[in-house]
């Protein structure tokens, strides 16, 4: 699950930065099975195929703006 909410005050400046320069750092994900084998005490949604490791705010921007693309 994405811990960032739409009300996160850091989203508007990040969105403006992504619009101006593009997404400079990719979102880091790992397969759910890999995550569960190394982090059994940190469960994720049953229907998740991937787990977001780094880039929760960038992912939130992609959710808010379907025109945005991820490198």
Structure explained in plain terms:
It is a single chain. The chain is α+β, with helices and mostly antiparallel strands and 71 residues long. It is 38% helix and 13% strand. The protein contains three helices and two strands, in the order H-E-H-E-H. The protein has helices spanning 11-21, 32-38, 56-64, and strands at 28-31, 50-54. Strands 1-2 form a two-stranded antiparallel ribbon. The longest helix is centred in the N-terminal third of the chain and has 11 residues, at 11-21. The radius of gyration is 13 Å and the shape is elongated. The mean pLDDT is 83.
The largest pleated sheet is described as: 2 strands, antiparallel
Uncertain runs are: none
Pattern of helices and strands: HEHEH
What is the overall pLDDT average? 83
Helix coverage percent of residues? 25-40%
Count every helix, treating DSSP H or I runs of 4 or more residues as helices: 3
